[in-house]
Known about the structure:
Layout: E1 2-6, H1 11-22, E2 28-33, E3 44-48, H2 54-57, E4 65-68, H3 74-77, H4 80-100, E5 105-109, H5 121-134, E6 140-144, E7 149-150, H6 159-174, E8 185-186, H7 187-198, E9 204-208, H8 210-217
Parallel strand pairs: 1-2, 1-4, 2-3, 4-5, 5-6, 6-9, 7-8
Amino acid sequence: MRVAMIGASGLVGRHLADRLLAAGDGPDIHAFLRRPSGRRHPRWQEQVVPSSQWPALVAGAGADSAVSTLGTTMRAAGSQAAFRAVDLDLVVAFAAAARRAGARRMVTVSSVGADPRSSNFYLRVKGEMEQALDALGFERLDILRPGLLRGERGGDRRLGERIGIALSPLANMMLRGRLERFAAIDADLVAAAIGTCLGRPERGTFRHDNRDIRRLARP
Length: 219
């Protein structure tokens, strides 16, 4: 398998790259990045170019699978338009280019509550992204919808996120049953679930909430 990937320097992406490269029979990874990763591995190749160039370069990756763990924050983006340009436009442009180049499967990270009809801007953008990917005709499309991601992200977390993570052990105890999908979840589990999805043979579109993600992470 050969995987074309964006978002490899992010919270989930770093874990995923580590896992896939640590597997003796893991795939080759062709990552598109804005900054060098410093990663060295025989099955790792990266192209460091402006993100606007990523879709045009996907054909050269020769990938049969595409993965996006890309995502920004409103604070980092600076505006709703800039946020939409990354979390919707860039992800979809990358996926469409990969599909045209022959990729048969796609895995992406979305969000719990994603809905193209939502009144919440963030959830609406995520829902529109899911809808656009579903229309591209991949043989298999996996959409992971985790709750609040836990892990070492760096300094771009919002205050609300930091508070949410600090309180997540207590909150998770109360989020059971149908509410479990809103619980915080470790980014490494999401990465492990993506790795499992890449090996699944069934065709179709599959959406995975926290419970599914945990099950996929420990097949």
